[in-house]
Design brief:
Immunoglobulin-like, 2 domains, 5-stranded mixed beta sheet, 1 helix, rod-shaped
Length: about 280
């Protein structure tokens, strides 16, 4: 009986010791920890500007000049921006009038100018297709001008310039690549100038009247139509120097003189008088 109790005590001590020894070993052994997950760096965003070719503001202006032989190209009308309608009075063709349009454009990046193509249209007809190779290289942010002479024909006209119209350059924005300007060459509406002198008593020649200081702002003297009306008669061609009345002294008369320019503007003057 005593022997059996001893065996039970020994077995209990053995298993209990083994249990506490294993537990102690687990507590002493350092716990392994998993390394922290590495976070991949964020992909940097591309902050460089994208190509943007556009017109400056105002995108164009237009002016009319004349050269009276001195070669100075004197400006006779103010310049008009692209948001206005230019209107230019007709001038003498002998003054060599010229209407010129200039477009202003800019790129936000340096660019080989030969890569930038343009198309210029006038009155909806393409006149020029080319590139800006003449500029060499376009500097970023710098405004460049491209100019073209336009017609002086009477009437309304429209000029358009398209930048990068083939879209061969990868631009971020194609919304501001068309510059347009409308203008009118106005027909002359100013009458000729002259002064009707007389009546003067010129002895045997009679009582005479004559026009002086004949001029016109556009038409040359050879283009002016000179007419006169003698009393109640119809208008007939008039001599450029004078017309003289002869007849009874004290008789009443009316003399009228009229000049018409090439655009149909008229100036008429008349005088009523009695012969000396």
């Amino acid at each position: 009986m005593i022997l059996g109790a001893l065996i039970v005590f020994i077995l209990a001590a053995f298993f209990g010791g083994s249990y506490y020894l294993a537990k102690l070993k687990r507590e002493i052994t350092p716990k392994s920890t998993a390394p922290p997950k590495s976070t991949a760096p964020a992909t940097p965003t591309n902050s460089s500007p994208t190509l943007d070719i556009r017109f400056g503001n105002p995108s164009a202006n237009i002016k009319q000049t004349i050269d009276e032989g001195a070669g100075d190209g004197r400006v006779i009308n103010r310049e008009y921006s692209s948001i206005q309608i230019g209107e230019f009075d007709e001038v003498k063709t002998a003054f060599a009038p010229k209407v010129t349009i200039c477009y202003h454009f800019v790129s936000n990046e340096a660019l080989d100018a030969s890569q930038l193509k343009y198309r210029f249209s006038f009155n909806d007809k393409v006149e020029v297709e080319d590139n800006f190779s003449g500029f060499g290289k376009l500097e970023a942010g710098k405004i460049y001008d491209w100019c073209h002479d336009l017609t002086t024909d009477i009437g309304a006209h429209s000029a358009k310039l398209e930048l990068n119209y083939t879209k061969s350059l990868a631009e971020s924005n194609h919304q501001n690549n068309l510059g347009r300007l409308d203008y009118k060459n106005l027909a002359d509406n100013i009458s000729p100038n002259f002064t009707l002198i007389g009546p003067n008593n010129e002895g045997l020649s009679g009582t005479c009247l004559f026009p002086q200081y004949i001029s016109d702002n556009v038409s040359s003297t050879s283009q002016l139509k000179l007419e006169h009306k003698i009393d109640g008669a119809d208008w007939t061609s008039a001599p450029p120097d004078r017309y003289c009345y002869t007849g009874p002294s004290g008789s009443s008369h009316t003399y009228a003189f009229r000049i018409t320019d090439a655009r149909g503007n008229k100036n008429e003057q008349s005088k009523s008088f009695n012969l000396y």
